[in-house]
Design brief:
Blueprint lengths: L1 H17 L6 H11 L7 H10 L1 H11 L1 H4 L6 H6 L9 H32 L2 H24 L13 H16 L5 H11 L4 H27 L5 H28 L6 H20 L1
C-alpha cells in the first residue's frame, strides 16, 4: 500500500508540473505509467485517475485567480445604480466567462463524440513523441516570428474577443485529439498567433482549463462509477492533493518567468524529450 501511495505522489508531482508548463501533462503521465505500474488498482481506475487527478490542478487556478473569475459582486454603489439580477454580477467577469465557454465549445463537442476513438488511435508513446516534437518546433518558430512582428499585443483579458476565444478553443481541440500536444501549450500557441501577450495567453489558458478539465474529470468519474476500493480512494486523494500544491508553485513560477523570457526553452525541452521517447520505443 505504501508503494502505491508513493506512486500516487509521483503522479501528482508530474501532473502539477506539466499541466501548466506547455510540455503536456497527459503525455508525461502516459509515459510515467509505462515505467511506474500500479499493482493494487484496476486498469479502469488508472485510466480514470490520470484524468481526475487534474481536479487538484484546477483548484489551484481557482484559488490563485479567485478574484478574477468570481462573477458575483457585493458592490453597494453598483447595486444602487442597477436594479434587478444584474446588480449581483460583475459585467466584465461575466463577459470573460462568456469567452471561456465559447473557447470550450470545440473540445467539448468533439471530445464527447470521439473521446474513446482518440484514445484508441493516438494514446501511445510514438504519437506522444511526435506531438512533443511538432509542437516544440512550433513554439520556437512562433516565438521567432513574434519577436520580428510589429503587431500590437493584447495585454488584457478585456481585449480578447469572442472570435479570439473560439480560435484558442480550436487549438485546445488539438490537445484533446493528440496527447503530447499539451492543452496549455496548444492554447498558448493559439493565443500568441492571434496577438495575445505571453502573460495574457497563459492566464486565459488557466481560465479555459477550469470548465474543460472539470468537465473531463466528471465525465471520467461518471463512466468509471463511484465504487472504489480503499486503496483507490487514498491513491486518488493523495494524487489530487499533491497536484494542487505543486500547481500553485508552478503557476506562480510560470507567470514570473514569462514576464522576462519567452517560451522557446519549453520548445527545446519538448523536442529533446520527444526524440528520446521516439528512440526508446522504436528500439524496444
Amino acid at each position: 500500500m505504501l508503494f502505491e501511495i508513493i506512486k500516487s505522489v509521483i503522479f501528482g508531482l508530474v501532473e502539477g508540473i506539466t499541466e501548466w508548463l506547455p510540455i503536456s501533462s497527459t503525455g508525461h503521465l502516459i509515459l510515467v505509467e509505462q515505467f511506474l505500474k500500479f499493482k493494487e488498482v484496476s486498469p479502469e481506475f488508472l485510466g480514470m485517475f490520470q484524468v481526475v487527478i487534474q481536479f487538484g490542478a484546477i483548484l489551484a487556478v481557482v484559488m490563485l485567480y479567485f478574484k478574477n473569475i468570481w462573477p458575483f459582486t457585493k458592490d453597494k454603489n453598483k447595486a444602487i445604480k442597477e436594479k434587478g439580477i444584474l446588480s449581483y454580477f460583475n459585467k466584465d467577469i461575466m463577459m470573460l466567462w462568456g469567452k471561456i465557454l465559447v473557447g470550450c465549445i470545440p473540445a467539448a463537442i468533439i471530445g464527447l463524440l470521439f473521446d474513446e476513438v482518440f484514445e484508441e488511435l493516438f494514446y501511445n508513446p510514438i504519437c506522444i513523441a511526435i506531438a512533443l516534437i511538432v509542437f516544440g518546433i512550433a513554439f520556437i518558430v512562433i516565438e521567432n516570428w513574434k519577436k520580428k512582428s510589429k503587431r500590437k499585443t493584447k495585454d488584457e483579458n478585456s481585449e480578447i474577443t469572442y472570435k479570439d476565444a473560439l480560435i484558442i478553443g480550436i487549438f485546445q481541440l488539438l490537445a484533446a485529439i493528440f496527447p503530447g500536444t499539451s492543452r496549455s501549450g496548444a492554447t498558448i500557441i493559439g493565443g500568441l498567433l492571434i496577438g495575445l501577450s505571453r502573460p495574457n495567453a497563459a492566464e486565459f489558458t488557466f481560465y479555459l482549463a477550469i470548465p474543460t478539465m472539470l468537465g473531463a474529470s466528471l465525465l471520467k468519474l461518471l463512466k468509471f462509477g463511484f465504487v472504489f476500493s480503499s486503496i483507490e480512494i487514498i491513491v486518488l486523494l493523495v494524487g489530487m492533493l499533491v497536484s494542487f500544491l505543486v500547481s500553485i508553485a508552478v503557476i506562480k513560477f510560470l507567470m514570473g518567468y514569462i514576464k522576462k523570457h519567452d517560451f522557446k526553452v519549453f520548445g527545446y525541452y519538448r523536442i529533446i524529450l520527444g526524440i528520446i521517447v521516439l528512440g526508446y520505443f522504436l528500439l524496444h
